[in-house]
Write a structure and sequence with these properties.
The protein is α+β, with helices and mostly antiparallel strands. The chain is built from one helix and seven strands.
């Protein structure tokens, strides 16, 4: 479970993004903080790195249980 009280564990969210984005390739996701509020609509930024470079991601909390969505930022 990603949620822990009123916060979400960032390392678990990073792992989810790495697993999805890194299919067939090595990627690293760094969101900085250890936890973020388990507040629907809360947004935070991460960096995704692979052998081609680094891109910024915006992650949005969808549920208090830790469902998130993410998108690449220009």
């Amino acid at each position: 479970m990603i949620g822990c009280g009123n916060v979400l564990k960032v390392h678990e969210i990073e792992g989810q993004i790495e697993a999805f984005a890194g299919v067939g390739n090595f990627v690293n996701v760094d969101c900085g903080d250890e936890t973020v509020p388990a507040e629907v609509g809360y947004e935070f930024d991460c960096q995704l790195s692979d052998d081609r470079g680094t891109v910024k991601l915006r992650v949005t909390v969808l549920t208090e249980d830790g469902e998130v969505e993410w998108e690449y930022l220009p």
